[in-house]
Design goal:
Blueprint (H helix, E strand, L loop, with lengths): L3 E4 L3 H14 L2 E6 L7 H5 L2 E4 L12 H11 L3 E3 L9 H9 L3 E2 L4 H8 L1 H10 L20 E5 L9 E3 L5 H16 L4 E5 L5 E10 L2 E14 L2 E7 L6 H17 L4 E10 L4 E8 L6 H8 L3 H11 L12 E8 L1 E2 L5 E2 L2 E2 L2 E3 L6 E5 L6 E2 L6 E9 L2 H14 L1 E3 L5 H9 L1 H4 L7 H4 L2 H7 L4 H17 L19 E5 L2 E8 L2 E3 L4 E4 L4 E6 L2 E10 L2 E6 L2 E6 L15 E3 L4 E6 L6 E2 L4 E7 L2 E6 L4 E6 L6 E2 L4 E6 L5
């Protein structure tokens, strides 16, 4: 039997595997890069091993270091989690060659399903529906729109949608570059793109006696081809289609003698009720908790059982209720989903009946630019889909997440969007609804601004060294109100013996932790946290991070007109122009890579590139000047 498991992964998935191992009495080994040394999962393991460095290529992708860590810690089994080496056939074989148990499918299964091109051939031979591969030469207008995909890997990297045949060669080249950077394999393929399709996948567990099917999940709501909301069972599917999906997934597993947990992914066209094979993930999926909650299983436990004996434990494989999972990302949806990095000064997601939280971070954790931007998965289960959505939205609403911009508010809007509640999900959901724009245009409610202004005033009073008893903003002769400015918003108020006075709000209680306001006979308390000139405010009107605008700005902090600033910390992977080049507005100037995604920095206007401050491989900080594009116009 397995006695000590090394998890060749990090953060949330490492914690998830450790939890099941503890329940089963199995010891654990954590691996961590320098950037991850202080994350909670490192302390959760029985022992931990440092992998010097930060970049995945020098840490979690180093199979030799992983195997050496297993040797020195006495780990007799390795669980790969997802991502990194989880679908690397050579690594799986190396684990077995080292005399250790591989908690995953056979290396040959990984190899055969690892190529999307080869796997489509296998599935077609097994009778599973597939989309035809196309090329630049044989694609026609009738095939449009098209999608270019990386043969290796996933997560939306190396993927491009093409709507004009003339754009296909350039998009293939761009996809190749991104795939090579992300996976070390630039092979791509082209197929027709189902515009309003749904992403439906089936959970399978192969064992000695066959392939167990544990229902389907819908993962259609995506941004940049990466999943955001997942649920089980898939809503609004004809029972006959569900049966066909399950049968196709079972056939896919049986065709390669699959052993272990895996997921067969399909593209479903609701207009025709037809589905097509996309790929098979030969590992545990990020969204596996929704299947666990509905089917009452522990998929990690099943993985361990199959790895030990090839036999599944006895179980009553019967689904109950509905589960929905959201991925909480450190990103800004209003700014093109730009990844965010920094310190999570507060990270509290309320637990409760029917709520499950899986995270690799806690309050005080540092979120680096080296890895995926996912902070946590939050899952709700309830007897019905509507009840699960309401429960999950409520838990997210009450969460306290400070220090970084996240997609939390977007997730709440999705869960409360009527078209979502009606089951109208598809891969273009975020584009055809207004949930993203609604968040981008929403300004902080005035009461949030008032609470922030009061908190700043209370903080200033608390730091006084003299006259502590004098009321805030006391004046013998009042000439004008005090003004606190947050960007484009001004909050005017008076202070005196009776506290704070606002035109439309009464301050019932004031402090640096809580502020209670009353308006039109309704009182509400806002949690506040002051950090220098910034205030985090949470309450019944949502959350806002408000930063006080200083009265005076240091001229040395200004940047030249036309400067291109790094939108986030990252690495320059390509410089597309040279100094002196003429560019048009929107032309790519350089490409940054951060959190496994590539981001193009474009010219803000027509002009000439007069300065370039970076080169390929340069590490940059957020806000750093990368280049300057001048218009040549006189000021």
């Amino acid at each position: 039997m397995i006695s000590r498991v090394l998890v060749a992964n990090r953060a949330e998935i490492a914690s998830r595997v450790f939890r099941t191992c503890r329940d089963l009495g199995i010891e654990t080994v954590a691996l961590h890069s320098d950037a991850d040394a202080d994350l909670p999962y490192v302390r959760e393991a029985t022992v931990a091993v440092r992998l010097p460095g930060n970049a995945p290529a020098e840490t979690y992708l180093r199979s030799d270091l992983v195997l050496e860590a297993a040797r020195i810690t006495g780990a007799d089994a390795i669980h790969p989690g997802y991502g990194f080496l989880s679908e690397n056939a050579e690594f799986a074989q190396a684990v077995l060659d080292a005399g250790r148990t591989w908690i995953g499918p056979a290396a040959d299964s990984i190899r055969r399903m690892g190529s999307k091109i080869e796997s489509k051939r296998l599935m077609e031979a097994a009778g599973v529906p597939v989309l035809r591969n196309l090329t630049v030469d044989d694609a026609t207008d009738a095939d449009l729109p098209l999608i270019v995909k990386a043969s290796a890997g996933g997560g939306g990297r190396g993927m491009r949608i093409v709507r004009e045949l003339a754009d296909l060669p350039g998009e293939i080249e761009a996809a190749r570059r991104e795939a090579e950077s992300a996976f070390g394999d630039g092979t791509v393929f082209v197929e027709s793109y189902v515009e309003r399709g749904r992403h439906v996948e089936v959970q399978v567990v192969g064992h000695r006696d066959g392939v167990l099917v544990l229902g389907e999940r819908d993962c259609s709501i995506q941004r940049r081809h990466q999943k955001v909301v997942e649920e089980a069972p898939a809503p609004d599917l004809d029972p006959a289609v569900v049966t066909q999906l399950h049968d196709a997934a079972r056939a896919a597993g049986e065709a390669i003698g699959y052993v272990g947990a895996g997921t067969v992914e399909f593209l479903y066209d609701a207009a025709t009720e037809r589905f097509f094979f996309l790929e098979m993930n030969t590992r545990l999926q990020v969204e596996h908790p929704v299947t666990e909650e509905v089917w009452g299983v522990d998929l990690v436990e099943l993985q361990l059982a199959v790895a030990e004996s090839g036999v599944l434990p006895a179980g009553d494989w019967t689904p109950q209720g509905h589960a929905i999972e959201v991925r909480l990302y450190a990103e800004d949806p209003a700014a093109g989903y730009q990844p965010q990095s920094g310190t999570l000064t507060a990270f509290e997601i309320p637990a409760g009946p029917g709520i499950r939280v899986e995270s690799g971070f806690t309050s005080g954790s540092e979120v680096s630019t080296h890895y995926d931007a996912m902070l946590a998965k939050v899952i709700a289960v309830a007897p019905t889909r509507a009840a699960a959505a309401r429960r999950l939205a409520g838990a997210l609403d009450r969460a306290r997440i400070h220090g970084l911009t996240t997609n939390r508010d977007l997730l709440v809007r999705i869960l409360r969007e009527q078209s979502f509640l009606d089951g109208q999900v598809s891969t273009d959901f975020l584009e055809r609804t207004s949930v993203v724009e609604a968040g981008g245009s929403t300004e902080p409610h005035r009461h949030l601004q008032v609470a922030a202004a009061v908190a700043l005033a209370e903080d200033a009073r608390g730091r006084r060294t003299v006259q502590r008893g004098v009321p805030v903003a006391w004046r013998n002769v009042v000439s004008q109100p005090q003004t606190t400015t947050f960007g484009d918003h001004e909050v005017s108020w008076l202070g005196g013996r009776d506290g704070y006075a606002f035109d439309d709000v009464t301050v019932l209680a004031a402090g640096t932790d809580e502020v209670t306001l009353e308006a039109q006979g309704v009182a509400a308390t806002y949690a506040v946290r002051v950090d220098g000139d910034a205030v985090e405010v949470d309450g019944p009107l949502g959350h806002a991070r408000l930063v006080r605008t200083p009265r005076f700005v240091d001229p040395a902090e200004q940047v030249a007109s036309g400067s291109l600033l790094a939108p986030m910390p990252g690495t320059v992977v390509r410089v597309a122009v040279e100094p002196g080049a003429t560019v048009a507005a929107g032309d790519p100037v350089l490409v940054l890579e951060a959190m496994k995604m590539q981001h193009t920095v474009s010219a803000p206007h027509d002009g000439t590139v007069t300065e370039i401050h970076v080169q390929q491989g340069t590490q940059v900080a957020a806000g750093e000047v990368l280049a300057v594009v001048e218009t040549g116009e006189e000021a």
